[in-house]
Design a protein that fits this description.
Mean pLDDT: 91
Low-confidence stretches: none
CATH topology: Beta-Lactamase
CATH superfamily: Haem-degrading domain
Number of domains: 1
Oligomer: single chain
Strand order of the largest sheet: 2-1-4-3
Number of helices: 7
Largest sheet: 4 strands, antiparallel
Strand content: 15-25%
Distance between the termini: 55 Å
Number of strands: 4
Order of helices and strands: HHHEEHHEEHH
CATH architecture: 2-Layer Sandwich
Length: about 170
């Protein structure tokens, strides 16, 4: 291929993949406000307290970046990082960590995700959606089992549901 043909092909490809209008150049998305993220975390923490569990709760935005971290006074020292990891994992994979646990058992096709840096594949991480869009995720750590962590995360998410629907 000569240089001229390569230049023409490159120019055409650039035109095809470049935004043609201003609205194509920007992406709009929804994310949790800090206030709603804090309300969600408080509700999840309160739910676990009501069940007799001392936990940490993390809320992340749609990209997995931390917005809120709450740790009850007697929650273990591992709980903040575990809760953050669960929330990040749920946001990253756009599914609950309980579902990820089920599909990533040793010998299964998805088993490799357990080895990814930062992935915490144990129950207690849930996505938060509004209007069909992922807006964040919540992770809870410190209850005796992942199902109990997940129940508290769900209670937190349910507590802010009316603020998220539009």
């Amino acid at each position: 291929m000569n240089v001229r043909a390569l230049s023409v092909a490159t120019a055409l490809l650039t035109l095809l993949i470049s935004p043609t209008r201003a609205e194509d150049a920007l992406v709009a998305y929804k994310s949790l406000s800090p206030e709603v993220a804090l309300d969600l975390a408080r509700a999840a923490l309160d739910s676990c307290r009501g069940r007799g569990y001392q936990v940490a709760v993390a809320v992340v935005d749609r990209f997995g970046v931390a917005q809120v971290m709450l740790r009850d006074r007697f929650a273990g020292p591992h709980t903040p990082s575990t809760a953050s990891g669960k929330a990040w994992t749920a946001a990253s994979f756009k599914t609950s960590t309980t579902e990820l646990n089920a599909v990533s058992q040793p010998g299964m096709m998805q088993a490799g995700i357990r080895s990814l840096p930062g992935a915490v594949i144990i129950g207690g991480g849930l996505i938060v959606e509004a209007g069909g869009s992922l807006v964040g995720a919540v992770g809870v750590s410190g209850a005796p089992v992942g199902d109990a962590d997940e129940a508290c995360a769900k209670a937190g998410s349910d507590a802010v549901r009316d603020k998220l629907e539009f």
